[in-house]
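From the methods appendix. Each design record in this collection lists the tokenized structure first, followed by the designed amino acid sequence. Records were kept in a plain field format so they could be parsed without special tools. The example shown here is representative of the layout used throughout.

RECORD:
FOLD TOKENS (339 positions):
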């Protein structure tokens, strides 16, 4: 949906609006920028017609018009607004927070301070009598991600798959001293203020209790100060999803991490064309059972195993580190944090 194009006629602008109708959905806020006569109102009229409402008009004097149709469309014009308090007086924040409506704002650049961080920017530049350059940008507020479940202490300031800053430290027992410093450095290098954050993602484990406690403490402190939400991310499921992107569909895998001297956490999965399916739910297993699983290469047999007592430590049963190692029946072992 993002990018630029050249529009050479009124009909092409209408075609462009109809095309955008396929992508814009309820809850979206569209900031329309451009000089007088650029085609902002023409774009909104064509969009409204595609959505089932024919009769929209410029709200220059009314500030906002509301159009019924497939969903409600709010049409704002900031051109005659003198100060942002005028917009606050009409309840602009409530309008733009309506998840069941689409909001279009002409002359949005005049009062960008009242707009939500998450919005679509459409800029229309006059390049000829009937020609326009249209630039569509998705304004995605950044998210802070924190990982402290194991030896790795990692933070990431993320806007998109092509715009992020990641910083990791692989060292034991430094989380309490380094996590806030890593966050501060990552935010600074990414050029992001805490007030810009949309939310915080935190790895919820399983993993080190101390690491989890420190990670959640840091996340809660930042979230409370900025009045933003926290999203818990299941560590093993996120790893299964990431690994599955590089595995042929139908390939099975295990994700393991040490829990105690004689136990490990395990999740079994199978890659699919759009992610993964869970074969074995996250659970604690005795390391001796894990040894049998690896020898047999049969994940189905694993569900019938009973826990054994007095089994040796996991480090005595497996090589020190596993990456993706081929097993029988297209199974894989992914080993994460053995010491």
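DESIGN:
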């Amino acid at each position: 949906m993002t990018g630029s194009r050249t529009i050479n006629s009124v009909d092409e602008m209408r075609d462009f609006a109809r095309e955008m109708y396929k992508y814009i959905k309820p809850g979206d806020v569209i900031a329309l920028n451009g000089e007088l006569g650029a085609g902002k109102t023409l774009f909104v009229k064509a969009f409204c017609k595609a959505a089932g409402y024919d009769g929209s008009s410029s709200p220059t004097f009314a500030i906002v018009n509301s159009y019924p149709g497939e969903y409600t469309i709010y049409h704002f014009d900031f051109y005659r607004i003198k100060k942002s308090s005028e917009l606050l007086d009409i309840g602009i924040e409530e309008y733009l927070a309506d998840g069941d409506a689409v909001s279009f704002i002409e002359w949005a650049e005049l009062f960008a301070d009242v707009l939500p961080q998450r919005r679509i920017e459409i800029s229309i530049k006059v390049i000829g009598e009937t020609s326009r350059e249209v630039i569509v940008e998705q304004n995605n507020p950044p998210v802070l991600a924190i990982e402290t479940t194991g030896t790795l202490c990692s933070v990431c300031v993320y806007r998109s798959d092509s715009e992020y800053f990641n910083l990791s430290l692989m060292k034991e027992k430094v989380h309490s001293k380094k996590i806030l410093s890593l966050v501060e450095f990552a935010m600074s290098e990414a050029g992001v203020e805490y007030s810009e954050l949309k939310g915080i993602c935190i790895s919820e484990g399983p993993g080190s209790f101390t690491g989890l406690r420190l990670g959640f403490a840091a996340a809660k402190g930042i979230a409370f100060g900025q009045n933003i939400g926290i999203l818990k991310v299941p560590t093993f499921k996120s790893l299964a999803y990431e690994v599955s992107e590089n595995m042929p569909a139908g390939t099975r895998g295990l994700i393991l991490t040490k829990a105690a001297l004689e136990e490990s956490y395990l999740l079994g999965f199978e890659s699919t064309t759009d992610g993964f399916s869970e074969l074995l739910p996250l659970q604690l297993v005795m390391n001796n059972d894990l040894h049998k699983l690896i020898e047999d290469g049969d994940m189905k047999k694993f569900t019938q195993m009973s826990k054994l007592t007095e089994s040796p430590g996991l480090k005595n049963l497996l090589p020190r580190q596993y990456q993706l190692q081929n097993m029988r029946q297209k199974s894989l072992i992914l080993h994460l944090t053995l010491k």
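APPENDIX NOTE: Confidence is low (pLDDT under 50) at residues 301-339.
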